[in-house]
Amino acid sequence: MNAQSLIDTAAKISSYIHRTPILTSRLINNIAGAEIYFKCENFQRMGAFKMRGATHAILQLSDEQKAKGVVTHSSGNYAQALSLAAQSLGITAYIVMPSNAPQVKKDAVRDYGGHIIECPPTHKDREETANRIQVEKGATFLHPYNDHNVILGQGTAALELLEDHSDLTYIFAPVGGGGLIAGTSLAAHYFGTNCTVIGGEPFEVDDAYRALQSGTLEINETTNTAADGLKMPLGDLTFPIIQQYVSEIIRVDEEEIVVAMRLIWERMKIIIEPSCAVPLAALLREKERFQGQKIGMILSGGNVDLSNLPF
User: Fold this and answer.
1) Location of each CATH 3.40.50.1100 domain in the chain
2) Which of 171, 203, 179 is nearest to 279 (CA)?
3) DSSP E strand stretches across 26-133
4) 296 — phi, psi (to 5°)?
5) Which end of the chain, N or C, is less packed with Cβ atoms under 10 Å?
6) Topology of domain 51-141, per CATH?
7) Which part of the chain is the Tryptophan synthase beta chain-like PALP domain (predicted)?
8) First to last CA, the chain
9) Nearest to 5 by CA among 218, 233, 191
10) Could you tell me the pLDDT band of residue 213, with boundaries at 50, 70 and 90?
11) Residue 24: its pLDDT value, please?
12) 276 backbone dihedrals φ, ψ, rounded to 5°
């Protein structure tokens, strides 16, 4: 994966995604003591950056593969992203979802044309069901983040950010499975000018922070965080990229996530999900280090359950 592959990816997916706006807030800048440029992927099609990676992954398939459809297992944004990307490209998407997935997410997947196959709510059952669909339908499995084509797709958000603001000194992004921050770090490496990438991660699911310390993939003992989009562990493809190109990961507690989320809702008048607030929470936690800097921040998505807000 190099600079040209990111440029090519951006060109391939451009007609299927939104080039999302970049917003600023004078009040939040004053609080942080820095100049922050928010890349608003909460305004992306289906409401999150994952539309980028899902679209690119599908576009890389052969005609024969496209004819047989794609399959994934997800209860979150990737389920919606793959469904809408597949619908946009005229192919079938089979989405394995746990039986306890929120009804609002199941409804969204169906609205985007995805065919839901429910399974018991364990990772083992999700994988086994997805494997069965692969065999029965001949569908191609597409991983939500541990896939080079997905990583490249996610990196186009930061590429767009740097095209508009080439002099950023830092970019902050949330860390879950690592697809977004891996792609972001590649974009910063190839298209930034001494641009440092920093991850934000909840203390409750800090496997990426610990992995950077230990040099090996770690697991999470708990997933007790409001940032439900960041509960998945790093992948064996995302981790080496993060090791090489991400400077550090700042951990935040649950109260800091809620404060940052509420700040964006109230001051910027836009809806973001808890996972999306983690990078701002990370910046505010250690804001003394970043005074006067020009900072890009990926607002990853806005698919929040309005009946279950954390404030």
Assistant:
1) 3-48+148-299, 51-141
2) 171
3) 35-40, 70-73, 93-98, 115-119
4) -95, 145
5) C
6) Rossmann fold (3.40.50)
7) 13-301
8) 41
9) 191
10) very high
11) 97
12) -70, -25
Which CATH number does 3-48+148-299 carry?
Answer: 3.40.50.1100
Hey, CA dihedral for 235, 254, 26, 169, is it positive or negative?
Answer: negative
Q: What is the pLDDT of residue 29?
A: 98
Answer yes or no: pTM beyond 0.90.
yes
Q: CA 36 → CA 159, 190, 286, 290, distances in Å?
A: 16, 21, 14, 11
137 is catalytic: no
Looking only at the bridges linking them, the beta strands covering 35-40 and 246-252 are unpaired
Tell me the helices (H) and strands (E) count for the chain, helix number first: 13, 10
Q: Are 251 and 206 in contact (CB under 8 A)?
A: yes
Among 50, 105, 106, 231, which one carries the catalytic annotation? 50
Dihedral in degrees, nearest 10, Cα atoms 161, 163, 168, 169:
100
Span 154-177, average pLDDT: 97
